[in-house]
Amino acid sequence: MIRVIVVDDHALIRRGLRETLSESGDICVVGEAGDYGELRQLLRRERCDVVLLDVNLPGRSGIDALRSIVEDGLEVRAVVLSQYPEDQYGIRALKAGAMAYLNKTAPPETIVQAVRTVAGGRKYVTPEIAQALADSIASRDGAPHDHLSDREMQTLVLIAEGRKLSEIAERLALSPKTVSVYRSRVLEKLGLSSNAEVATYAMRNGLID
Hints:
Layout: E1 2-7, H1 11-22, E2 27-33, H2 36-45, E3 50-54, H3 62-71, E4 78-82, H4 86-96, E5 100-103, H5 108-119, H6 127-138, H7 150-160, H8 165-172, H9 176-190, H10 195-204
Parallel strand pairs: 1-2, 1-3, 3-4, 4-5
């Protein structure tokens, strides 16, 4: 039996993932966490084969959390889930130590297959991730947004979606002042001067639909 810990700050999503995995017959969810702190506690007391990890966690992103866990020497086989397209965060997740990255809209059977593959010690790479990897190799320097931090990238996407700073702050569990700092960094690094230019940049680079 493959033992899985599900990490997402939304209880309904955790419940849906638990049901999807449990119906597979060979996977059981041994724990759930809503943030990084709860995940660390679970890892101390529960043996698991795979961690199903959401990108958007309160206070600290899932990718940041994964980096910290890996740096601490904990052996974690992680499948990162996100609402963002694979070509947006996939490579970041793999570089941080994830063994798979899936969009939350992926079919249940795809999530189950990814968990099985990762539990077996192999990476699960979608066609979208494979294409993103190929593009990153072809372009040595990468796109300007490839040099943003995870939080800066999240801020960019949310601004491009038309979210106000207060909404972004609530979404990322950060203070409005901190979000404002991230916005300033995004503008500086991308050579942009307004939210409208951020939205245009995001659309041109396929960061939002």
